[in-house]
Amino acid sequence: MKRFSMDELIQFGVAFMTTRGVPQYHASYVARIIVETEAFRQSTHGLVQYQVIRANLGTVIDPVAEPKIISDRGSTALLDGERCLGNLAMKSAKEHAVNKAREQGVSFVTVRNTEWIGALGMHLASIAQEGLLAQAWAQSSACEDCAPYGGIDPRFSTNPVALAFPTEGYPVVADFSTATMSMGAAHTLIKKGQKTSTPRFLDKTGAPRDNASVMEDRGTLMFLGGDVEGYKGFALSLFNEALTALAGGSANNPQAPSHQSFALMVLDPSAFAGSGYFLEEMKRFLEHVKSSRLRPGFDEIRLPGERGFAALEDCRINGIPLDDDKLQMLRKIADDNGIEPLG
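-> structure tokens emitted (343 positions)
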């Protein structure tokens, strides 16, 4: 593993994207989110975004496009991504949602027709750091990842959900798929030839398997809850698709153009019991949670996001460790776009 500073990796992304026509101010924002995601222990959704952007800029992704407001009413808004970079669509949605929540107490913003927005949780962290609660749902229109509970044929993407709320320290940030794992995690297992401790996949006959390689032969991911309680993840994923239709996007349809849609809700505690009360009560409650006796094999009770924020702080000081595969990917991007390679 070699370590590279976060600034170096951000500047690499800016150089690559501006070479391909993305305005400097947009490239800077997108690169920072991508690098922070990598540092936050979300490596399946971090620097790999550079590779996806490289493949799609100028075709699927319009490098100069910006989200368009379709509807703006009270505490709600609808945006069309206009095939812009997904992170820019989320940036615009966050700005609208935070402003509306400050005014109305609650906001709900939906976005259709954008591209991959990476890890949802990283986008919500900054909202929670402003003292607000946030929830996000994301869907991909043409992915064939998950079969309906009780079925064999894929009808869903992995449809992730993220939740975040402020505390006196780092916010709590949860980011998870409505499937047993993200497709990025499944691809990593396939590449490494690793199996899961319990069956998390279905092969093409519908039989539960612990080997992600079945995904390469018409297999699917199970929903959150697995073979026994996958109906729970199935229900969450159905709601995710409903939110897509709410925004005027395409619910799962392999015949439709491949785009992402997402929905973002923000709550301001000052409009309810008050920010001071919220923080004090959550402090008491989280101390209560962490006071539980530990199960054998566990050294502490960690809240969602704790390890990620610790990793992010370490990377700010010591740089981000990159394996040979990531370095090779970045070298290819540099070669293909005529920019200076890392190091």
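Residues 202 and 208 are 5 Å apart (CA to CA).
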